[in-house]
Amino acid sequence: MSKKDNKYLISYGEAIGTVTAQSIGEPTTQMVLGSLHSAGTSLTITTTGLPRIIEILDGRKVPKKPSMTLYLEKDIAKDYDKAKQIRLSIESVSLEDVTESYSEDLIARKLKIELSENIMKQKDITVDSLINLLQAENKSISVKKIGKNTIEISLEDKNKKMKLIDVRDRFNKIMHSNIKGIREIKRVVIMKDKNDEYYFITEGSNIKEVLNVEGIDKNRIYSNNPFEMYEVYGIEAARATIIKELHAAILSETSLSLRHVLLVADTMTYDGTIKSIGRHGVVGAKSSVFARAAFEETVKHFVNASIFNEIDRLNGVAENILIGKQIKLGTGRVILSLKKSDLPKLLPLKERERSEKGKEKKQIEESK
């Protein structure tokens, strides 16, 4: 155990911030071609490689491709039929998804929709349940069944002041309205782990709504969006998400010690909120004027500092390097003091012998 602990110890005064920046910055620079130009990247559910690292470090509240990992409760974890049923209750379905064809009469304000029988069956939706849902969601429309798989939607306009373009916009909203599942979750894929238990990978994320779905294990809900994890579970969960996502994104292309990722995650979350690495986050919050100016927007920081009479105490690393002053890292961290009486002990051997001989000669002369 002691050997394992010693492996992760650092030397006193080591510049861990600079080493971390170098350890992450150098390999990620080499990831550009591998991640931005890889074939089939657009078909994956989640963002990978350099784009994923950038959106994590920038602290973007909405990732380009949010995703969730959902597990089933233990008693139904191996039941495929139950997993399929829960999947249908989660995956978002819009009216447009179940439409075979439709026609619009803008003047009469009527929308005629022919529903796809096969898709309706796959999504476990009936015509009657669809009509009830549309009617409940939109109070200003009337929906009626005019055929086996055909419905007609009429807009109510008592004052008849609605323009044709407004009618068209209303029809468009109705076609894209959510009729089943959770709106943000566009796709759900059923996966199987090594224990033959089923779980879901989703395209889209909404933890708050998923918590209300029966059959989902509430203790094993995971989202790749740190901000959503922060809102639901707190800052420690957000920190763990940043560590997992950042380390996975880097390890997909190159190797990196986990210690560097831990330091970045701690820096982004130490004050109880998620801050980006940049001028709007960690760097912008530094008290040193020189440190902020050394990163970006140099003139702006110096002008603002002069207007508001800011004082730079030069306590950090960046500002001391900028003005050519010794930094408090490495050998600059150690302050040595020496007694005058101990000075001869540090002299080279020959000089020490010469000094001793000189003392003996002086003593002999004095004795004479």
What report would you give on this structure?
The protein is an alpha+beta fold and 368 residues long. The protein has four domains: 13-65 and 225-269, PTS-regulatory domain, PRD (Orthogonal Bundle); 67-90 and 185-223; 93-180, Dipeptide-binding Protein, Domain 1 (Dipeptide-binding Protein, domain 1, Alpha-Beta Complex), CATH 3.90.76.10; 286-331, DNA polymerase, domain 1 (Orthogonal Bundle), CATH 1.10.150. The chain contains 16 helices and ten strands. The strands form three sheets. A four-stranded antiparallel β-sheet has the order 8-9-1-10. It has a four-stranded antiparallel β-sheet with strand order 3-4-6-5. Strand 3 (99-105) and strand 4 form a beta hairpin. Helix 4 (49-57) packs antiparallel against helix 11, helix 11 runs antiparallel to helix 12 and helix 13 (289-295) packs across helix 15 (317-323). It starts with a helix and ends with a helix. 20% of the residues are buried.
